[in-house]
Structure formats: C-alpha cells, structure tokens
Amino acid sequence: MSQNEPSNIVNLSQRLDPSSGRGGDLLNAVRSIATRRLQQYIGNMFEHVDDALFDLAEKAENNAAQMHYFDGMREVRKRRPVIERGFLAQVSRELNDFVGGQRSTPASSGAPTPLAGSIELSLVADNELEESLAITSMIGKNETRLARDLFAVNQRLSVICGGARIEDATNPIGPALLAQAFRQSMRELSADMRVKLIIYKLFDRYVMASLDELYQETNAELMRAGVLPQLRHEVVRQGSTGAAAGGAAAASGEVPAPIAAEDSDASAELLQTLRTLFGARRAHPNVPLSAITQGPLPTANELIGALSVLQSQAATVPVAPLPIGGSTLDITEQVLQLKEQLMTQLGSLRGQRPGQIATMDEDTIDLVGMLFEFILEDRNLPPQMQVLLARLQIPYLKAAILDRKLFAHRQHPARRLLDGLADAAKSWSEESDRDGRLHDTIKAIVERLLQEFDDDMTIFDRLLAELQQFQDSNRRRAELAEQRVAESTRGREKLEQARRRAAREILNRIGDHALPPLIHGVLSRAWANYMVLTILRKGEESTEFREALRFVDAFIASTKPVRTPEAKRDLRQLLPGIERALRKGLANVAFQDADIERLLGQLHTYYRQQLGEVAAPAPEQIAQAADGAPAPLPIPESIQPLAESMADLEDDPAQAEPEAEAIAPEVREELERVSGLKPGTWLEFNSDNEHFERAKLSWISPMSGRYLFVNRRGLKVADYSPYELAVVMADGRARILASNALFDRAMDAIVDRLSHEEARPDDTE
Prior knowledge:
elongated; coiled coil; five-stranded antiparallel β-sheet; DUF1631 domain-containing protein; DUF1631
C-alpha cells in the first residue's frame, strides 16, 4: 500500500472477506463497481440486438439469409436472460477468485483458454476460428485503446494484492477476461454464426466501448483510498533503436521473454506455438552438429547490415514480367536460397563466415521464408502479382528482426501493408487493368521499399496510406460503375418479370376461347404493352392494373356470340367502356392518334357485325382482305410484344435446370457452396488455360436469384443462375478466392506445415 494511504478506508462492499483486511475491502469495492456497471452495459447491449438484426434482415441478399436473422432474433429473445446471467456469473466468479487470492493464469503461460492457439490451430472448425478471430480482434483493439486507464488499474490492483503482478490478461475486469466470459455465456445461444458475430460487434460497441468509465471510476475509488495517488502512465514509444536493441539481446543468445499479448492472447499464443514448433524442428536438424563451425553469433546490427546489402542488390535487378501461364518455380527457389545468401554476406562483412546464428533470428529467417514461400504458392494471387510481392522478402525480414512484434501484432503497419497489397492484387487481371495503374502502383510500392527502407519502420505507414488512397479513389469510380450495372440489370429483370406477369394474366383469361384475330392481336400486343407499363409504373397491386385486368375480361366477353336481345343489350353497354379504356391505354404506350382511330374503326366494324347491323364477310372475302390487309399497328420499340413472352412461358429457361435428384453429385456439392456466397466474394473465371478473369459477386437478384459479377472497375463480367454457376465451378472453370487476410492464411498454413513436420519423426519410430 502507498505511504499516503489514509487511515480510514470506506467499505463500499456488502460482502467483505474479513481475512483480507483493508485490501479485501478495496477488492470488494472494485467488485461492487464492476458488477453494477457491467450489468448496466450488458443490458444496454441486448436492447439494441433486436434492432440490429431486424435491419440486417431487411437488407438481406436472399430469403435464406433473412430467415437466419429472424431466427436469430427469436433465439436471442428466448436466451437473453440465460446469457446475461451466465456472463455476470462468470465475471463474478473471476472477481471472487481474485478477491480470494486465486489469480487467473495468462494464456502465454500455457494454460488452456478458449482463445489459446495450439498445434491443431488449423484443424479448428471454421466457425470456431471465425469466432476466435472476432474475440481476439476485439480484445486487442480495446487493450490498446484503454492502455492508460488499464495500466493504472493493473498497478493499483497489484499493490492491493501485496505486489503480485497483474497484467491485462489476468485482470478480472480487463478486456481479455470479460470477452472470454461473454464468449462462454454465448455457448447458450444456438444461432447462426452470422448472428453471433453481429452480437459480438454489439458487445464491442456497448460493453467494451464503455469500459473506460468502469476503469476511471475504479481508479478514482482506489486513489481516494490512497492507493498510488500519484501514479502516472508513461507511454513507451518503440522505435527502430529499441527494436534493434531487442534483436541484439536475442542475437547474444539470451532466452527471450514470454511474448506479451500485443493484439490479443490468441496472436501471442500463435507465435508461442510457432516457437515451440521451430524448437521441435531444431531437435531434428538436417545438418550434423559436427559440421557446424563455432564462432561468435552475428549481432542484430550485423544481420541488418548484411540484409541491407542484399536489399540494395535486389533493388537494382529489374523484375521480368511473368508470361501468362508461366511458372513461379524459379522465384520460389530464390526465396529458399535467402538464408544461404545471408550467411555468405555475413561472412563477407565479418571476414569469417558464421557457423550459425541466434535461435530467435534463425526462427525469424525461416518464418519469413515460409511466409513468402506461401505467397508464391497461394492461388488466390495471380502469378504476375506473386512475382512482385516475392521481392519484398528481404525488407520484411529486416522489419521482423527490427521489430519482433510483426508476427504477433495484427495491426502492425508492415503486416497491414502486405495484407493490403495482397487484397488489391487479388482483384487484378489484364482485362480489368488495361491501363496498368494497379500493377504499376503495387510495383512502385515494392520498389520504394527495396530502395528506401533502412531501419525507419514508419515507411510502412506512409506506403499503406498511399495504397489506401489509391484504393479509395478507384473504389469510388468502381462503385459508380457497379451501381449502374446493377440498376441496368435490375431494370431488365423488372421488365422481364412484368412481361411474364402480363402474359400469364392474359393467357389465363383467354383459356380455351377461340378469339378473332383482331381481338387476339389487340390483347397480345397493344394491351399487353399497356399492362407491362402499368406494372412498372404503378405496381401489380395498383388500381390501374386491376382496371387493366377488368378490361381484358370485358374484351374477351365482347367476343361471345350475340343471339338474344338481352345479349345485344349487354354488349352495347360494354362497348363505351371498352373504347374509353383502349383510348387511354394506347395513348399511354405512345400510340399515335391516327393509329388509335384506325384500330377503333376496325373494332366498330367487328362489333356491328356482332350485333347484326352489317352482314359478316364471306370466307372468300376474309381471305381477300387478309391478302391486302394494312400493316399491323406499330409497337413502341421500348417494350417487346407480348407474343414473345407467350413463347417464353412455353420455353422457360428455368425449366432447363434438372430436378434436384437428377443433379450430378459434384454439381450438388458446388451448389451448396454457391448458396453460401455473399456479395463482395471474389471468384476467378477461366475461359481456357491461358486466360482468366477475376470478378466480384456484386449483386444477387431478389427476383430471379441470378448472380451478377463485376471486375475491379465495376464492369460486368458475367451473370449466372445458381445452378449455372455450380456447373461452371464443377467443371473447373471458376473457383472461389479466399476472403481472409493473406497474413492470417499464411500463419495457419505455416502452423499446419510445422505440425506435420514435428509429427514425422514420431511416425518413423
């Protein structure tokens, strides 16, 4: 306790641990503050879940996604009390254990936690991994944001606990343990992972974002009690000098300290796992120990110097463009040879080739080598882009030696730059980059790193800002083009849907009636076009559309034989309404007045024949009239005649798709993947072995269900029905590209590879 601690400590807790004395009183006060505020935060969060899920349901791209959100709403309403109680109970247990002197073990010590990485990291289910990434990202962001207040809480709790070290990961009200407690309580919710991820975002927004209030109140209470009232949190700025010093310590052969959870426990645990795997790898060396010469280990400065020489040499070598369909095997060989080149260069600088280098440095060199080997094998990147990014191996090895956080810190500028370059490169194709602007931008960033990067790590921030500015500028133009393509496609589909609706209504009403050619022609052409425009302008539920349908019924009824005075009377009552409706409808579809009068004249003659006022023409007269009949009425070009829609109904493309039981197994498998695609997903389409196009799923039609694809410039590449796309994928002419970050994919692949390497010796025993 501080010497300035007042003699009287106010007891704010209702549950005291008598054996803990004044320290116990303060710990109970902290528990009281935390319980009250967290109960308020978690309740506030759940008040917003319904609205968030309802908004997402309204904007869902298809009915299946909409149902996921509605089902999630129902499940959350039902399970909310259990989740809230579970979360608060877990926090209470952590605080009780803390007050009782039982400290949580940080993940870096090897104790299993829900977020801990392991050798089996790559085998974790996709949902579990996605959930872990959401949690760890949340923890890392908030530990960084709250660093000042959290540091003060840690220090004061440490004083109260008799000097026991309290870290972010072991603080019972720290972001890490709170996030883990909420994840544990969320196991009660059997909702779709998309729903869970939304809830985690809301937890971040309404609980984690409010923790500064909790920490400030906790610090204020402990300061009033005299616990470190003058404490100041000095933020240590880490530059290249400090990082290099850390590298020098490692180069001297010292055992590295456990990795701090810079972004999250999972990131730190992942790197700890990698170290363990590299250690197991060294236990089975390929080079016999007798062949290793002894001598002083290279220092960090020597490594940086040798790499700088190699970097300057690489900067002067122009990169040869990779021909389409070319192989990156030669580049891969160069990546694998870097360690040998580095040893040779160290020998040149020192005058004596070192027999080995420090363990940590060797692990770093191998890890960076595996990273760039992965880049050259990653089919999510076009080969031309793989060649460009592979040139960054030396700068990234320097960065990793200068700053050991590169692999443990998700928000590290160097890591974000490489992820950003890979994300931009994923969308590249010759067709979409005819002006070469994307290729030249990535090439320029690579060359600047090779030419300018010495030991100033801020260059990664500057280049990342330039890349983001380029991407934002292109994204705005692409979004405008993409919007125009979607609107055009949506317009065509609405027109087609309206044509089919009009055709179906008229065909259903005609039924088995044998209509005279004149009446049939008016319905199938002129009136059908009016119905289409009415649907498009007013909608299918409008009064205007219902009136148009009543006209169809009346028009068909007017063709029935007239044999009685009552029938003649009924027909005469129909005719004025028919004429008014025709005049109005034909004028709306841009018929000229002369054409309308000509049509009405033909109808007057027909109806006078129906009423017996004039004699009906003889069959031979009908034939002669047909031979010299006037040209059909002109139809506006903006609307296609209904006759085509009638033919389409008989030959509906949807009928071309086989029944579910007739779909080939490989197509059925791809169809399941297609159904899970979301807008924003990138695919690669291959027309043949030498040409490919990369396209993003831009829009899924709510009417037809067709998938619209655009390239990085927002221009249409293709559109498919789900079945058509599944067939293309099953034939190997299209494949889905990964959506997660390059660095994350690489780390998972490296862990998997090292895990199998470690298992191999055991298999041979």
